[in-house]
Design goal:
Keywords: Membrane, Transmembrane, Transmembrane helix. This protein is mainly alpha-helical and about 110 residues long. It has one domain. The protein is built from four helices and no strands. α1 runs antiparallel to α3, α1 crosses α4 and α3 runs antiparallel to α4. The radius of gyration is 17 Å and the shape is globular.
């Protein structure tokens, strides 16, 4: 059970990075899509930035908590936050790009 908690603590920045962009769906100000034709209207710049901010804030909180059972050293919390957020959100974008890629017929 302890290992499960440690893994959830490790993955928390990724979880928050993935959960944050839908919260800015109704952002009333500037919020252009990243690439309308390839990704659609729902993958937006503000959503991506908000996801990165959520990941960095989560790792900053983990650094501040200084939990002794954590699997990583959170002294480089900014780097960890940016990398985990960019990895999670970049993975989502690449998944969407692969789904939108034109399919060739066999033969």
């Amino acid at each position: 059970m302890q290992r499960l908690v440690e893994l959830a603590y490790l993955m928390a920045p990724v979880y928050f990075a993935n959960m944050a962009p839908p919260l800015v769906r109704f952002w009333p100000w500037w919020n252009p899509p990243i690439h309308r034709r390839a990704l659609g209207d729902h993958k937006t710049v503000i959503g991506f930035v908000f996801g990165l901010i959520a990941a960095v804030a989560t790792t900053a909180t983990q650094h501040w908590l200084n939990w002794k059972a954590s699997l990583l050293d959170y002294d480089a919390w900014l780097t960890l936050g940016v990398c985990s957020g960019a990895g999670a959100l970049g993975g989502r974008l690449s998944q969407k790009l692969c789904e939108a890629a034109p399919r060739k017929e066999a033969g």
